[in-house]
Amino acid sequence: MSTGRIPFLDLAATTAALREDLDQVWAQVLTHARYIGGPEVEAFESEFARYCESRAAVGVANGTDALELVLAGLGVGAGDEVVVPTNTFVATAAAVCAVGARPRFVDVLPGTLQIDPDAARAAVGPRTAAIVAVHLFGQTADVPRLRAVTERHGLALIEDAAQAHGARFAGARAGSLGDAAAFSFYPGKNLGAFGDGGAVVTADAALADRVRRLANHGRAERDRHLHEVRGRNSRLDTLQAAVLGVRLGRLDADNARRRELVALYRLNLPDGVEPVAEHPSAEAVHHLAVVRIPDPAAATAALDGAGIGWGIHYPIPCHRQPAFAEFADGRLPVAEEAAPHILSLPMSPTLTPADVEQVCAVLERSLTAGRPRAGAEGRRW
Length: 381
Hints:
The chain is an alpha/beta fold. The chain is built from 13 helices and 13 strands. The strands form 3 sheets. The chain has a 7-stranded mixed sheet with strand order 1-9-8-5-4-2-3, with helices on both faces. A 3-stranded antiparallel sheet has the order 7-6-11, with no helix packed on it. A 3-stranded antiparallel sheet has the order 10-12-13, with helices on one face. Strand 2 (81-85), helix 5 (91-98) and strand 3 form a beta-alpha-beta unit. Mean pLDDT is 95; it is low at 373-381.
């Protein structure tokens, strides 16, 4: 990843607009000094559950823990298989392994690069316990088609919503679409903290209670000295909850701005640069602005030269990662063919139309420089 005069994500600028409110809540926390389990945690959990149009939210230490705790809370463990799209950050698969289950990697759809529901259905076997719907790049997966699979086979449907704060599908919010959802509040997310943080969101009150108990050393609610299960320490701290409470109030406005910027990208991207498709029923929040491009190396060199930040999400599908080689069942051609050609362009609520136009102009020059002379045989992509 590169950063430059047009940064990939301008965290300082997005924070500056909230400085006064952040200073106020920071001072409140410093005054009451309840750095773990302070009132801001419960307040944020309540607000975030309501925002997700669900019943409960449990703040945890990070998004990976959120996934692992959902799986554990649902009873997924050794001997189970969990269907996971190969085109995702490795944390999705790592959480499955952490509870002792086996990730069953499946391919993605050519347009959106989201999990392919037909591939997920074909991967279901006698040991399958759950399907993880990864809402990639800020767009929700096609949950209704996945729900048809899980209901038919009696499986859990888990949302990996780490990149989809505020996204909708057919009008319903991410976090209300599955049996439970795992969110990350890593600083670069649409709703980001000033460090690591995460949450589990679910309409199942009993599951929320199990997750909360597991995340707090297995401690019983009625007696803090009684530990009913073997738990762990995974809590959202008070300072991060205070920050997130402030930033939640700006989330919809920031997401709307991201949609405007992606619309500008679509208008200005040169021929040969293809943005990832959007499902007609999805309202994306564009955590990332991902495009396919014939020669990412030439493009990134040009962007570097112009002082423009960029990223790649993700150049190696999970089933091709050495850490998960034992779970690879063969080729997953859509993800494999897309991976060498993807590029993430700058995306931040503080980006300007002029910034978008400059990024697109640099991409155009990089494509022009790489085009063959008239009569020469060009590379097809």
